[in-house]
Amino acid sequence: MATDLQKLIGASEEDEDEDMDVKEEDDDDEDAIEKHLSTSPIVGVDVLIGSTSNSNRFHSYSQMQEQVGNSGGGSRRCRPLEEKERTKLRERHRRAITARILAGLRRHGNYNLRVRADINDVIAALAREAGWVVLPDGTTYPSRSQASRPVSGPSMVDTSPSSQMMIPQQTTPISPRAMVGDGEQTGGQALIGCSIDTLDGKQIVDIPLKLSERDFAGTAYIPVFVMLPLGVINLKCELADPDGLLKQLMILKTINVDGVSVNCWWGIVEAHAPQEYNWNGYRRLFQMIRELNLKLQIVMSFHACGGNVGDDVCIPLPHWVAEIGRSNPDIYFTDREGRRNPESLSWGVDKERVLKGRTAIEVYFDYMRSFRVEFNEYFEDGIISMIEVGLGPCGELRYPSSPVKHGWRYPGIGAFQCWDQYMLKSLRKAADERGQAFWARGPDNVGSYNSQPQETGFFCEGGDYDGYYGRFFLGWYSQMMIDHGDRILSMAKLAFEGTCIAAKLSGIHWWYRTASHAAELTTGYYNPSNKDGYAAIAAMLKKHGAAMNFPCLHSPSPDQPEEFQLTEALADPNGLTWQVMNAAWDVCLPMVSENSIPCFDWASYSRLLNRAKPLNDPEGRHFLAFTYLRLNPLLLERHNFMEFERFLNRMHGVLSLFSGEAIVDIKQ
């Protein structure tokens, strides 16, 4: 019998014998206790059973253990070998049944269960399918779209039938209701302006909604994507933590997140040799995302990672590119002091065959074409919904004018990055075409990285930036950046035909309330107070049918209050944002966005909502999509995750049944 059952179960169960031995010893201990209870009435069984005191139970159980231990080793009953074998077979049989259940759920039910899944994983998967939210620590509650939700704090949700009957079936917003026990105080404070009812001995307190909160029910549906961690794929192009990531993705799926955003790093995929691409880790990641029925946003990351705000991993440019850079450092952006920035390649090499016989544009195109061939099925199935093409440092269309590693600190104006030989070659050509050969130089009165506009002769009020030479130089400097974007996007349009492409801009809002807009000028945005520098960028994106990704701006430094930073730096995030949005919408350009810093509080979410869906816009304009930065354990904490789901529902324009409602059962 044992042999037949082992064949049925399979040899994979043999590694569990050690666990069985532990279980058998525990069973022997239990048998010894039972035997002692039956033969030693002096222990006081009635005390063990009838007493409600935890201390008495513990004391009695301690006495029982002592008597068992003092009874001598010869009194311990040994089970016959046949009984031990039967117990072991029963346990193996039970585990075999569990293994078949898990295999069936994986194969026929599309459940993403790990190989060594246990019953907790099964329960969590079934709960999520039923619309419940299961957090990593086991906290479980219904989704807002299914049933009531807990509120922050130690109180728990009352999910009894009586509490569910209290919910009126209506489509208008429901006022907050707090349910307290008989004779209890609500936080020790009087409830002013609230009505109190009683149901089943509990008080129902109606708390008026805040009039300032905007109702987003029935507004446009904006898809929300969550950016995955920067290091989700390691330097070996392997999925770093597949089990942990799968659990997090399943949690996101329970609240109807539309998809995720993933950086595809050039420095990982084409790391060792030209045109040798390794997509293994991304292939496994995309398969996991497809099985969860999520969408994908892909970022073609042609820059290095590490050293900027929010970078928690280090991913350099490909090794073979770094080797070229050691012998020819002019492939990198260079400042006036000759310091190189290996974060990305200079615009000057776009058409120079300095990369093993290829130009930079050809290298970018070959990479994008390889991605399209490798994952063509994901394009055809509509799983990949958008490709954001990296156009510079941090994937943004800009110059690396504010490198922290070179000493820049907010709110410094930054520095021009055009002193490599290839950029200077282009500048000389432009000056010759204007008939002003002596203009073939960069400005020398621009201060340093941390200067302020009024401290320089170039950016000060009435400075050289608005003179003949200044307008020539700034026009050339900005046009080099726009031409770079134009060339790459034309290649991306060929590689990703039929799929929406996007380009990301940077929000340089400090010194916006000065005449020169110095920080924007060094970044490549020719946007002084007498010129709209974003209209030309929007026109270039419109030419390729690309969406514009412009982040929702916040104060860039947590060290000082936001009001102080904005005042001292003459910054205007709102003014800059509206200028960029109007430049895009004036040419009917789709807008997508993301949060510039992590946010978990409702005040930050409210700002994002009002930016994504402008109030009373006569044309009903709104963002095409929104990306939340980024997935991490802090987001999945109970209160933070509840606020994120609330934000998600409003981005979707869904009227949550429990919008603004708190049902709290304060137990006596």
Automatic annotation (TrEMBL):
<feature type="active site" description="Proton acceptor">
    <location>
        <position position="594"/>
    </location>
</feature>
<dbReference type="Pfam" id="PF01373">
    <property type="entry name" value="Glyco_hydro_14"/>
</dbReference>
<comment type="similarity">
    <text>Belongs to the glycosyl hydrolase 14 family.</text>
</comment>
<keyword id="KW-0378">Hydrolase</keyword>
<feature type="compositionally biased region" description="Acidic residues">
    <location>
        <begin position="12"/>
        <end position="32"/>
    </location>
</feature>
<feature type="region of interest" description="Disordered">
    <location>
        <begin position="143"/>
        <end position="167"/>
    </location>
</feature>
<dbReference type="GO" id="GO:0006355">
    <property type="term" value="P:regulation of DNA-templated transcription"/>
</dbReference>
<keyword id="KW-0326">Glycosidase</keyword>
<dbReference type="InterPro" id="IPR001554">
    <property type="entry name" value="Glyco_hydro_14"/>
</dbReference>
<dbReference type="Pfam" id="PF05687">
    <property type="entry name" value="BES1_N"/>
</dbReference>
<feature type="compositionally biased region" description="Polar residues">
    <location>
        <begin position="157"/>
        <end position="167"/>
    </location>
</feature>
<dbReference type="GO" id="GO:0000272">
    <property type="term" value="P:polysaccharide catabolic process"/>
</dbReference>
<dbReference type="InterPro" id="IPR008540">
    <property type="entry name" value="BES1_N"/>
</dbReference>
<keyword id="KW-0119">Carbohydrate metabolism</keyword>
<dbReference type="InterPro" id="IPR001371">
    <property type="entry name" value="Glyco_hydro_14B_pln"/>
</dbReference>
<dbReference type="GO" id="GO:0016161">
    <property type="term" value="F:beta-amylase activity"/>
</dbReference>
<feature type="active site" description="Proton donor">
    <location>
        <position position="396"/>
    </location>
</feature>
<protein>
    <recommendedName>
        <fullName>Beta-amylase</fullName>
        <ecNumber>3.2.1.2</ecNumber>
    </recommendedName>
</protein>
<feature type="domain" description="BES1/BZR1 plant transcription factor N-terminal">
    <location>
        <begin position="74"/>
        <end position="167"/>
    </location>
</feature>
<keyword id="KW-0624">Polysaccharide degradation</keyword>
<dbReference type="InterPro" id="IPR018238">
    <property type="entry name" value="Glyco_hydro_14_CS"/>
</dbReference>
<feature type="region of interest" description="Disordered">
    <location>
        <begin position="1"/>
        <end position="35"/>
    </location>
</feature>
<dbReference type="InterPro" id="IPR017853">
    <property type="entry name" value="GH"/>
</dbReference>
